[in-house]
């Protein structure tokens, strides 16, 4: 289980460290989510997870799954957010000179 967690962390850090767009980071994060979820499901089926761990996993899944389930719609939302934030930052820089 530690190796799975480490792999997930490395994937996310790698995605965040480069010059990737938010949409690309979302894509990598969701792919990582699917991979880790599959592994954890196998562990659960094998009886290797404590009840408290299962509760934690369900809470995290409840937050991540809806985002990843939206697929292209979620990526489009991230792209739109990025475009609009850029506009706001441009306006702010006009006002405060930064």
Q: TL;DR of this structure?
A:
With 98 residues, the chain is mainly alpha-helical.
Proportion of residues in β-strands: under 5%
The number of distinct β-strands equals: 0
The total of helices stands at: 4
Provide the structure class. Answer: mainly alpha
Please trace the helix and strand order, writing H or E for each element: HHHH
- How many domains would you count in the coordinates? 1
Biggest β-sheet strands, sense, barrel? none
The chain-level mean pLDDT equals 81
User: Cα-atom Rg, whole angstroms?
Assistant: 18 Å
- Tell me roughly what share of residues is in helical segments: over 70%
How widely separated are the two ends?
Answer: 47 Å
Shape verdict:
elongated
Unreliable residue stretches? none
What order do the helices and strands come in, and which of them pair?
Blueprint: H1 2-17, H2 22-45, H3 51-69, H4 72-96
Descriptive account of the structure:
With 98 residues, the protein is mostly helical. It has one domain (2-96). The chain has 4 helices and no strands. The chain has helices at residues 2-17, 22-45, 51-69, 72-96. Helix 1 runs antiparallel to helix 2, helix 2 (22-45) packs antiparallel against helix 3 (51-69) and helix 2 packs across helix 4. The protein is elongated and about 60 Å long. The mean pLDDT is 81.
């Amino acid at each position: 289980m530690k190796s799975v967690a480490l792999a997930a962390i490395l994937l996310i850090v790698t995605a965040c460290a480069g010059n990737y767009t938010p949409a690309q980071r979302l894509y990598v994060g969701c792919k990582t989510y699917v991979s880790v979820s599959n592994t954890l499901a196998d562990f659960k089926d094998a009886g290797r997870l404590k009840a408290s761990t299962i509760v934690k996993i369900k809470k995290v899944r409840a937050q991540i799954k809806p985002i990843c389930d939206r697929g292209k719609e979620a990526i489009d939302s991230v792209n739109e957010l990025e475009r609009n934030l850029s506009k706001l930052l441009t306006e702010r820089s006009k006002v405060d000179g930064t």
